[in-house]
Design goal:
The complex is a heterodimer.
Chain A lengths: L1 H12 L1 H39 L4 E5 L5 H10 L3 E12 L2 E5 L2 E4 L3 E6 L3 H4 L5 E5 L5 E3 H7 L6 E6 L2 E7 L2 E4 L3 H4 L18 E5 H14 L4 E9 L7 H19 L3 E5 H41 L1 H13 L4 H35 L8 H33 L16 H4 L2 H18 L5 E2 L8 E2 L2 H26 L2 H12 L3 H10 L1 H40 L3 E5 L10 H5 L6 E12 L2 E8 L4 H5 L6 E2 L3 H10 L3 E4 L1 H7 L6 E7 L6 E12 L10 E5 H8 L6 E5 L5 H12 L3 E5 H7 L3 H5 L2 H29 L1 H9 L4 H37 L15 H27 L3 H5 L2
Parallel strand pairs in A: 5-11, 7-10, 18-23, 20-22
Antiparallel strand pairs in A: 1-12, 1-13, 2-5, 2-12, 3-4, 3-8, 6-10, 7-11, 8-9, 14-15, 16-24, 16-25, 17-18, 17-21, 17-24, 19-22, 20-23, 21-22
Helix pairs in contact in A: 1-11, 2-9, 2-11, 2-12, 2-27, 8-9, 9-12, 9-18, 9-27, 11-12, 14-15, 15-18, 15-29, 16-17, 17-29, 18-25, 18-27, 18-29, 18-30, 27-30, 29-30
Chain B lengths: L2 H6 E12 L6 E12 L3 E5 L6 H8 L7 E5 L14 E4 L11 H11 L4 H14 L15 H14 L4 E5 L7 H18 L2 E5 L3 H5 L3 E6 L2 E2 L5 H9 L1
Parallel strand pairs in B: 3-7, 3-8, 5-6, 6-7
Antiparallel strand pairs in B: 1-2, 1-4, 8-9
Helix pairs in contact in B: 3-4, 3-5, 4-5, 5-6
Classes of the chains: A alpha+beta, B alpha/beta.
Bound molecules: adenosine-5'-triphosphate and magnesium ion.
The site of adenosine-5'-triphosphate (ATP) has 13 residues of chain B, from strand 2 and helix 2.
Chain lengths: 887, 236
């Protein structure tokens, strides 16, 4: 029963060593398990949000000649469908309205026929703006084009038939127009079709009365879609949910046997969420995995600090006749004990963290995921214990002789990897792969549209991973070099710390350079990990902020309702609201660029840059300041989208003629501009093409200074609070939005899920790792050399002199490690942000550096080392005769 | 006791006892020890294993504090000033610092005492030379045999030119020839330096080479220390 005796001995006499190793394992397990639970929770949120965002899950288009009622019945009978309604789509040749003595007419448009109860079944599809929510409804833009309000009458043109007059009951907004008017069954990869400019919605009976005759004559101009809602009992993982939903859709198409084609909005949204989920997974790999590796290295360092002692114990056991396999078994027992304790503590910590951060006990959204994550993390814990304790014991049991087992410091030559230059190879390979993936634009997630599988370019991982590893080994080489060849320099550097003992301290450190270099590398890798994770997260937050600011325009934005005519002077009222520091008016018009209707923004050239914090990254062809200065010096300048530049082959200075509505005559007239640069993003502007011009010029040319939106700077006061006050001033005539709210709403589901949880987890773990890799490792290293210090003390070394030895080591490990880590972190941050470009929206112009957190990491490391060093000095101060006498 | 007599007393123990632990498991390592060590005196302490020799030596060196009675060093100064300085100790077990080579190990106490690096290195080299150990100067402790390591430990003590040498079984791990070499070196050096030498041993042949012998058993002296013997020893 050697094993049991051994285990009892270990727990009694080497409790510190066991606990420290188990601590390392526990950190790894807790990190993996809690990141796993975050990942699986966020995937579930992504699925839920994606499903909730879709107004109509399926739009099943009845094919020409097919009977819509049969299609409707088939859809209703399909598994998973909870509601279905037929919607008529008909083309109108044009709309006309005579209001206030003038007549407005529009080009072609679409007339929808909605059955009773449609709005209850699909509440997200329509939003009321004015008038009654039922009857004849006009889309917002159409109402603006026609100057028609509820109560007015408009005429609807029908190809080949007489136009009919209808009485407008209300205005609505169609938030999901893109999917509502999609070309169902369009070939994969086809350009999405722009929604129609003019839309009228009619009750189904009225629609049939008006357009059934049209359908008879011109079947291509009228058709019926069945809109369906599905039960959202979806798998938590977006990928699985996507497969399930698209499978159901295909199944329905087979049942329809050509009578209908399914426009699968739900699957399309889930497809996007699936890509986001994959990104979350990649983030987990990029940011979480190094943490686990570090925890493993930490365990190795802790176990390594006990290696001398273990070898001596082994040599003793051997001398007393223990066989190699017995020794190996003892190592295995120790590893199993460490693994078991570490895994248990780690899982418990992860549970507690999960409870604190996500409000649930559990590792995943589903039981299977929970069991998987718990088991996987625990397995990694056991693996680390085996690799750091059992494997070295086994190697020693095989290879180390009784004599060699007694050695503690050596004159060993360079390790094999160093003589082969592995570090330099890794660095070179990392840089090469980084460059190669960079040429492809860092496309990490490859999700060809319509293809059910989605793949990740794992090559991109290789760059940073190789760099990290290579940099760690390179730091080892440098540390080894400094301690070896650089001993004379060390001696000089150490003089202030160690006085006349500097040479002795330098020699002592030089002979222990392997251990010291290992410790330094651990600190460096931890620092690099913490720094790059923090910079990545801060940059992500910065970009999300910019995104929200772009979407909302400013801290608080007051958007005028269509049709109202508030001039720039209207801002004076807003400027008086408490908390408002400045008011920036922005004109918003629509302009025809050729046949394409685009948003046009008129800005005050002298104030817009400062007021809206315009970023250089929004523009091309000059900085924000330069381009806006051009608008000021040449008022007829215009900034257009890159797409427009391509479509019209524009060169700077080229004339661009837009058709703009004149404020006085309400007629569209030609206005000449000169192309000055490209605007990719602009506050409040949509993501597709838009134009930016000088407001004064627009006012002059269109005879109207109507402002589209006022951008309010709150100068630090809470945007939500200021928005509330503004709302009470402007009333219902304008829409007031604030940055805080839109930050929550903006963007893809990944942004919505928010990296906050992951960030806090990782940054917390990085701090723990920083403390452990500095303080714990130093303390253990010194504890293992207690006898050396006891002898020095017995020889008469004073606390100050012993301190020289301790502080020199501490300084070397921490100072060198932090410096190397900062450098590595800097390079790695740039690489990470580049490789993960796809996560950022918009792409960052510069990295955000969270100085406070980085200072906290440095401070933690320094504090941990100081505590460890002071403790060690205190412990070695009194000559421990027991240690001196016990060899 | 006259002042001049006091000037010759290096260590004085007065009813000294040292107990390890407390209560039921307490071990009384030494008790009721009263003795003096005079300048240039040479004492061999013998006694069975566990009789308290090492404990007494540590008390004499000021490495340990008595639990009863008092230890003083009238001619050497405060307890704090003993090491490095007037007292040199050769420990029973291996006592070289593993990360320092032989020369650095020998020079260490001098450096700790504030000697300049050059002077310390020179003194260390001279001490090694005197013990014919110069060839080992650049070796690491792990590369030495037990006997070599013990001789280096002796050299380390001699380099500091102490006035009191305390050697705890310096021959414990060695064969007779090697042991004799070390005892020779210790006695010769002590004589050269005019230092007192206290040495514990199990070897009667070694004990016989010193001019006085104290015998310990169960933490006390077997023969009461007769003050008159002091004079006898001194005159010898
Ligand atoms: N640090 C300690 N804690 C507890 N007991 C101790 C300690 N040091 C010594 N002892 C006990 O004190 C007694 C005397 O020990 P000491 O080492 O002085 O004997 P010794 O005569 O030097 O023996 P040896 O000839 O084997 O070296 C022993 O019983 C020993 O177990
Ligand atoms: Mg002893």
């Amino acid at each position: 029963m050697l094993s049991l005796t051994w285990l009892r001995g270990l727990t009694a006499r080497r409790r510190g060593r066991l606990a420290a190793a188990a601590c390392g394992v526990a950190i790894a397990v807790a990190l993996l398990a809690s990141i796993g639970s975050f990942l699986s929770a966020s995937k579930a949120t992504m699925t839920a949000r994606a499903a909730a965002d879709v107004a109509v899950d399926w739009q099943v288009q009845a094919q020409p000649g097919a009977d819509p009622t049969i299609v409707l019945d088939t859809v209703k009978a399909a598994p998973g469908v909870t509601a279905a309604a037929p919607v008529g789509f008909a083309a109108t040749s044009g709309l006309q309205a005579t209001t206030g003595g003038s007549t407005q007419s529009t080009g072609p448009g679409v007339v929808l026929g909605l059955p009773d109860g449609y709005r209850n079944t699909f509440p997200e599809e329509l939003r009321d703006l004015a008038g009654a929510g039922t009857g004849v409804l006009l889309a917002q833009q159409t109402a603006a084009n026609l100057h028609a309000s509820p109560g007015d009458t408009i005429t609807v043109g029908r190809a080949g038939l007489s136009a009919v007059a209808v009485h407008v009951d209300g205005d609505v907004d169609l938030p999901q127009a893109d999917s509502l008017f999609q070309a169902v069954g369009a070939p994969v990869g086809a350009q999405p079709q722009a929604p129609p400019d003019n839309v009228v919605l009619l009750p189904a009976a009225q629609w049939h009365a008006l357009f059934d005759p049209l359908a008879q004559n011109r079947p291509e101009l009228a058709h019926t879609q069945i809109h369906a809602r599905l039960a959202h009992h979806l798998p938590a993982d977006p990928s699985a949910a996507y497969s399930q939903v698209s499978g159901q859709a295909r199944n329905l198409e087979v049942k329809l046997a050509g009578a209908g084609t399914v426009g699968d909005n739900l699957a399309a949204t889930l497809g996007a969420a699936r890509a986001d989920a994959l990104y979350a997974q990649i983030l987990f790999l990029f940011l979480g995995l190094p943490g686990a590796v570090l925890a493993g290295l930490l365990t190795a360092a802790v176990a390594g600090a006990g290696v001398d002692r273990r070898r001596k114990e082994q040599a003793l056991l051997r001398a007393r006749g223990a066989t190699g396999s017995q020794l190996t078994r003892l190592g295995g027992i120790e590893a199993a004990a460490v693994g078991a304790i570490g895994a248990t503590v780690g899982l418990a910590a992860a549970l507690a963290l999960g409870k604190a951060m996500f409000g649930t006990f559990g590792f995943g959204a589903t039981t299977v995921a929970a069991a998987g994550w718990a088991a996987g993390s625990a397995a990694v814990g056991f693996l680390i214990a085996a690799a750091t304790i059992a494997v070295p014991a086994w190697r020693d049991a095989r290879g180390v002789t009784v004599i060699a087992g007694r050695r503690s410091v050596g004159r060993a030559g360079p390790p094999r990897w160093a003589s082969y230059g592995l570090d330099l190879l890794l660095l070179g390979a990392g840089a090469l792969i980084f460059w190669l993936t960079g040429r492809g634009g860092y496309k990490l997630v490859l999700a060809p549209e319509g293809v059910p599988t989605i793949s990740v370019s794992y090559w991109a991982f290789a760059g940073p991973a190789l760099l990290w590893t290579g940099a760690g080994l390179f730091a080892w080489r440098i540390a080894d070099l400094i301690l070896g060849r650089g001993r004379p320099i060390m001696r000089r550097v150490l003089r202030p710390v160690a006085g006349p003992l500097a040479g002795t301290v330098a020699s002592s450190m030089s002979r222990q350079r392997r251990i010291l270099a290992n410790a330094l590398v651990l600190v460096a890798l931890t620092t690099a990990f913490a720094a790059s994770t923090a910079v990545f997260n801060a940059t992500y937050r910065q970009q999300a902020d910019i995104d929200a600011r772009l979407t909302n325009g400013a801290d608080v934005t007051v958007t005028q309702s269509p049709g109202t005519n508030v001039g720039a002077a209207g801002g004076a009222v807003l400027a008086k609201v408490p908390g408002v520091r400045s008011v920036e008016p922005i004109q918003h018009r629509f302009a025809y660029v050729g046949a394409d209707l685009q948003d046009l923004y008129g800005v005050r050239a002298d104030t817009i840059v400062g007021a809206t914090k315009l970023q250089d990254a929004y523009f091309q062809g000059g900085t924000a300041r330069q381009l806006i200065a051009t608008l000021a010096s040449r008022p007829d300048s215009i900034l257009v989208s890159a797409e427009t530049v391509k479509d019209f082959q524009l060169h700077p200075g080229d004339q661009v003629t837009l058709r703009l509505q004149d404020g006085r005559t309400k007629q569209f007239t030609d206005v000449a501009f000169h192309y000055a640069g490209i605007a990719k993003e602009f506050p409040t502007a949509p993501r597709d093409s838009f134009l930016v011009a000088n407001a004064d010029y627009l006012t002059k040319m269109t005879g109207s200074d109507a402002v589209g939106a006022f951008l309010l700077d709150t100068g630090g006061s809470s945007p939500a609070a200021v928005a509330g006050r503004v709302r009470s001033v402007v009333g219902a005539q304008a829409q007031v939005t604030d940055l805080t709210t839109s930050r929550r709403v903006v963007g893809s589901s990944l942004t919505a899920v928010d990296l906050a949880g992951l960030t806090r987890l990782e940054l917390g773990f990085a701090l723990v790792l920083a403390a452990a890799s500095t303080g714990l490792v130093l303390a253990l290293g010194i504890a293992e050399r207690r006898r050396t210090f006891a002898i020095a003390s017995a020889l008469g070394a004073k606390a100050r002199q012993l301190g020289g030895f301790v502080w020199a080591e501490a300084l070397f490990i921490t100072g060198g490690g932090l410096a190397a880590g900062a450098l590595g972190g800097w390079v790695l941050s740039h690489m990470l942000v580049k490789v993960l470009t796809g996560v950022f929206d918009p792409p960052p112009a510069a990295l955000a550096v969270p100085w406070a957190y980085l200072a906290a990491v440095g401070g933690t490391a320094i504090a941990a080392v100081s505590i460890a060093a002071l403790g060690a000095i205190r412990a070695t101060q009194r000559p421990a005769t027991a240690l001196v006498r016990d060899p | 006791m006259t002042a001049s007599e006091n000037g010759r007393v290096l260590v004085r123990c007065d009813g000294v006892a040292r107990t390890f632990g407390s209560g039921f498991g307490a071990v009384v390592a030494v008790h009721d020890i009263t003795c003096e060590i005079l300048a240039a005196q040479q004492v061999a302490i013998t006694g069975p294993s566990g009789s308290g020799k090492s404990t007494l030596l540590h008390l004499l060196a000021g490495l340990d504090e008595p639990t009863a009675g008092s230890v003083s060093w009238p001619a050497l100064g405060d307890r704090d000033a003993l090491r490095p300085g007037p007292v040199g100790v050769v420990f029973q077990g291996p006592s070289l610092l593993p990360p320092l080579d032989v020369l650095e190990n020998v020079a260490l106490p001098l450096l700790l005492g504030g000697t300049s690096e050059a002077a310390a290195t020179a003194a260390a080299a001279a001490a090694l030379d005197r013990l014919h150990l110069s060839a080992l100067a650049t070796k690491l402790p792990e590369e030495l045999s037990g006997g070599q390591a013990q001789r280096v430990a002796v050299a380390r003590v001699l380099a500091g030119r102490p006035r009191l040498i305390l050697a705890d079984e310096p021959t414990g791990q060695l064969d007779h020839a090697a042991g004799a070499l070390i005892v020779d070196a210790l006695i010769r050096s002590a004589t050269d330096l005019g230092a007192a030498l206290v040495l514990t041993t199990h070897d009667p042949l070694v004990a016989a080479r010193l001019n006085s012998g104290w015998v310990m058993a169960d933490g006390g002296f077997v023969t009461p220390r007769d003050p008159r013997e002091r004079g006898l020893t001194c005159s010898a």
